[in-house]
Predict the 3D structure of the following.
Amino acid sequence: MKNRVKEQSLIFYSVLKWVVLSVIVGCLVGISTAIFLKALNWSTVVVSSYRYYYFLLPLALFCSALIIKVLAPDAEGHGTEKVIEAIHKENSIIKAAVVPVKLVATIITIALGGSAGKEGPCAQIGAGIASTFARLFHFDAHDRKKLVICGISAGFASVFGTPIAGAFFGVEVLVVGSILYDVMLPSFIAGIISYNVSYALGIRYSQYALIAPPDFSVGLFSQIILAGIFFGLCSFFLIELLNIGKKVSGKINVWKPLKGLLGGAILVGLALFVSTDYLGLGLNTIESSLKGQIMHWYTFILKSLATSITLNFGGSGGIVTPVFFIGSSAGNIFAQILHLDIILFSALGLVGLLAGAANTPIAASIMAIELFGPQIAPYAALVCVISFLMTGHRSVYPSQILAFKKSKLIAIELGKEIEKSKPVL
């Protein structure tokens, strides 16, 4: 009896401890996210008032790369990947300098037209704040890791207005095929608090009115399966294009900031000869797709290309917002080809690409419900799981640990980062 009482007392202490700590982290991340999003929105409005603002893209990528190289090399690339890498390889230690440097570099990149997202910086800023907080109060490595994961969840939740999906993203994204249950409580609390703090500070989130999907039928079931396969292949394409961009950039043996001039020049050419739709966050295109407007067949291809150039040639930012753009436009094209409901399949593409590209089918399925309503749940879950499997053993986050094989027919070493786990066929 004494042992049972002691066990319950220790559990109560642990729950109370993590409620307090996760509330603190959620508040800190919510405030920092609100500051970042307000600064990004303001700078984007100011810059876009000039017709040829994107002519400054070479300078933007140069400055972004220079600031990061000089002040905080850990802030390079898209933020969530760096946080995953820090958790697995750096004992969850993220330098405090990453927070302001990532904020400034990302605003420069996106405001002037770089194709990147806003969630990666928020995740990295959130994780950086949590890591600094943990080191300031001398937490051990285990507790520091949990706090950093809370920072990821809080950042994701507050940037998209999806607290539950954000919480699951943090505990699902680190290891492919495993959920970190011991971090679930603080992640949920941090995500909910961060979202509400950002909202209280004036951040507003997009609301999508999705037409109720048709009743279940064999035909609809077949279409959903085909869509999941298609979105998985689109995820595969995006990841491979990012890898190609990384290899090409690596072969250009010049000072890193100078690569920004080259990448920016290519993006300027894309804007001049094709469209400016592929620059920046691309939120207008995402919303247009989700309203049923017709997209060009090459829309998701060019956005993938612009994102690869931006992130591999000096730009700073996240990957999830471009994934939303690519996914919604890919779903739009899929629906056009098969004469299906464009709004429904654009929505399914948005979450399906996230599931496949980031290896987070549960978080993506929940996000579908938070963004589009519960009526989409069964269709989104099916699309997300199929896309997740079809993408194979690859990811936009190559530092993810691979914990299971997506097919028993494939021989692949488990327990390593995805980038080091090569399948034997």
The first helix runs from residue 2 to 48.
